[in-house]
Design a protein that fits this description.
By secondary structure, the chain is of the alpha+beta class. It is 36% helix and 21% strand. The protein has one domain.
Length: 121
């Protein structure tokens, strides 16, 4: 078997198989019943640094499985393909009302008191 980009084809095939296996495990099991669940499968694309641009990694969603604890959300019970995921993501507000500053949270953790939680001997 040959392909113009064999590594990319192998990654895509592996992603498809793992997604199908995981979704079937979720559906057949009871561990996630009655819970909100978002499972997104995709590829991490590594972009080499060039000129003045640093190396970067981009996650490209391939498929998603969304489950609502309400169980009436049948529109989300089936896997979604890339076009539907993209459309839903683009509908979201660009501002996250729950956004936090990772730097501020790390500083807050470093400044918090230390507790000795070891068990006495």
């Amino acid at each position: 078997m040959t392909a113009p980009s064999p590594a990319l084809l192998a990654a895509k095939t592996n992603t498809q198989m793992e997604f199908q296996r995981t979704v079937e495990s979720i559906r057949r099991g009871s561990e996630y019943a009655g819970k909100n669940l978002l499972f997104i499968a995709g590829l991490n694309l590594d972009i080499s640094r060039h000129a003045d641009y640093p190396a970067n990694t981009f996650f490209v969603p391939w498929a998603a499985y969304v489950q609502s604890r309400d169980d009436d959300a049948s529109e989300h019970r089936l896997p979604m393909e890339q076009e539907r995921i993209h459309a839903l993501l683009m509908e979201q507000d660009m501002e996250n009302p729950d956004q936090i500053s990772l730097s501020d949270e790390i500083t807050r953790m470093l400044e918090s008191p230390r507790f000795d939680i070891r068990s006495p001997a």
